[in-house]
């Protein structure tokens, strides 16, 4: 009996999930304004509420932590039972993870400084201009792969201020997250000058995560959709 109990506890421990997110309001963010958080109670946002609701519909043991994007992304990429949200689903990333979602959607938006006269009809109109972005972000990578100039930081927090001060010409961000970050930096009047590429956001799990765990996560997502909780969370954040 003792040996069997020990084996059972070991199996459960091996299935514990370590899930990371970043400060990307209003999708995921610290509830206390800190750069890092160590438990789910101190993390807020659309995707955070979705992921917590999904996990609460399962019997899985888990922790959710807020770190910078590079740290969480590389953990999810390299360690079994590790994951990261909200992660944009792309063809390039598709084979790197197992996916739960979509949790919600976002719309890529280019912001210019207050009072701009800039008119953009297509993305190519911004060739030769310097963008603010952040490292390993899907929007930043998209621009870099197509030959655009991007000054990428460790996080998006200071990019609104960089744009206001004229250190960059443009800033690429999400339609909801952009204005939120700007308000946190007391930056007003940034103007959305072009939007494109609506994408879906997911919980991305390491490829070695078991199919049993993935089935439970997908089942939890279906439960919150069936109960109306999914729609209620989106409505709460104005989607």
Automatic annotation (TrEMBL):
It comes from the Bacteria. InterPro entries: Solute-binding_3/MltF_N (IPR001638). Gene3D superfamilies: Periplasmic binding protein-like II. Residues 24-238 form the Solute-binding protein family 3/N-terminal domain. PANTHER family: PERIPLASMIC SUBSTRATE BINDING PROTEIN FAMILY 3, SOLUTE-BINDING PROTEIN FAMILY 3_N-TERMINAL DOMAIN-CONTAINING PROTEIN. This is Transporter substrate-binding domain-containing protein. It comes from Marinobacter adhaerens.
């Amino acid at each position: 009996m003792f040996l069997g109990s020990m084996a059972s506890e070991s199996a459960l421990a091996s299935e514990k999930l370590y899930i990371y997110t970043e400060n990307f309001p209003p999708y995921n963010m610290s509830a206390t304004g800190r750069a890092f958080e160590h438990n789910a109670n101190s993390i807020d946002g659309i995707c955070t509420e979705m992921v917590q609701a999904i996990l609460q519909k399962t019997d899985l043991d888990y922790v959710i932590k807020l770190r910078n994007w590079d740290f969480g992304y590389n953990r999810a990429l390299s360690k079994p039972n590790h994951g990261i949200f909200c992660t944009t689903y792309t063809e390039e990333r598709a084979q790197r993870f197992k996916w739960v979602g979509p949790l919600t959607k976002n719309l890529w938006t280019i912001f210019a400084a207050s009072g701009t006269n800039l008119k953009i009809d297509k993305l190519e109109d911004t060739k030769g201009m310097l963008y603010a972005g952040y490292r390993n972000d899907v929007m930043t990578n998209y621009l870099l792969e197509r030959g655009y100039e991007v000054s990428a930081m460790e996080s998006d927090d200071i990019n609104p201020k960089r744009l206001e001060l004229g250190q960059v010409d443009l800033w690429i961000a999400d339609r909801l997250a952009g204005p939120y970050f700007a308000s946190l930096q007391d930056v007003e009047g940034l103007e959305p000058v072009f939007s494109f590429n609506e994408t879906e956001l997911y919980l991305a799990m390491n490829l070695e995560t078991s199919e049993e765990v993935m089935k439970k996560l997908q089942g939890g997502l279906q439960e919150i959709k069936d109960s109306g909780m999914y729609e209620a969370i989106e409505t709460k954040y104005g989607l």
